[in-house]
Amino acid sequence: MAQVQQRRPASNGAASGAPPPREPPGFVARLVVTIRRRRKIVRRVGLAASALIILISLTIFARTLMRIDPGKFGAAFAATSRDQILMSFAFTATSYLALTGYDGLALRHLNVRVPYWLTALASFASYAVSFTLGFPLVTGGAVRYWVYSPAGLTAGNIAGLTVVAGVTFWLGMGLIVGVGFIFTSDAVAEINHFNALANQLIGLSAIGLLVLYLAWVGLLRWRGAPAIGNFRLPGPFLTLGQMALGVIDVCSASAALYVLLPKDAMIGFPTFATLYSFAAMLGIASHSPGGLGVFEATILQAVGGDVDALLAALLLFRAIYYIAPFICAMALLGAVEAARRWRSIREAMAAASED
């Protein structure tokens, strides 16, 4: 039997138990180069799309500014009542309160326990800074790391928290856009000039994607911990909680602008919330800090009416929803840093006195 095996052709590696022939090293190198090229192409396409969105939006915004009457613009500011401003602040507070739930759900998902005041501080400060400066993964992540790291959270925990919070935001906006396009298709058609049936199909597509996502994470949860690589996704029940929080946040933020609109703006709140979500998506896609220019151009183009009064409402909204929280966040972060330094000084003085 051994002699028969010796007479077999040496090239028959599979029969002799030898390992199958491997791909040449050049194949792996070519594959890596191809993947890198495709990533570069996708990145360049994304940058080109962002630049195009910014260019179109700034063109529309510039043309609108050229039609502004300074007298009417000032009168629109003066016509804004105190009740409108107070309601806008109240809805802004509700929105940021819902944002603290983003971090709360993410920390629960990661099985990390921290005091709620720390969660509220990290969430409020990170969103206030990232909304104003843009690049949320960098600015928001840096603020979260500065706040959470003394509590023992690792960089991996904070990265996972940031991803889960970002998914919560997109789930809420996707649900609002889907429902809005389905149930207010006629009103949306007057804005985007699509057929009402086409708007309903867009809405059904958005809802369908959300249902597929729920089914996917549910299936992965049934098979084991749903994960992408080393990152574990929230299960279906926690995802439903994310959607609810996202809807509360986006509806409150859109209401903060809605109450500032001029009285002649003939648009219902469900339609406006859908429009707000779409404008926010464009602002995020443009990578413009806070969607500046892109968000305003979309609202101005869609709502219509008195341009001077509408622009005054948008500027007031910027001051209330972006600038005021940013100033408060910087003050809070400064106070926390001062408290930390004072605590370090006291501990050093106590250690020196013991020596």
Automatic annotation (TrEMBL):
Instruction: List every stretch annotated Disordered.
Output: 1-23
Keywords attached to this entry: Membrane, Transmembrane, Transmembrane helix
Q: Which domain of life is it from?
A: Bacteria
* Chain segments annotated as transmembrane: 45-65, 85-102, 114-138, 158-184, 196-217, 237-260, 267-289, 309-336
Xref: PANTHER family = UPF0104 MEMBRANE PROTEIN MJ1595
- Protein name listed in UniProt: Lysylphosphatidylglycerol synthase-like protein
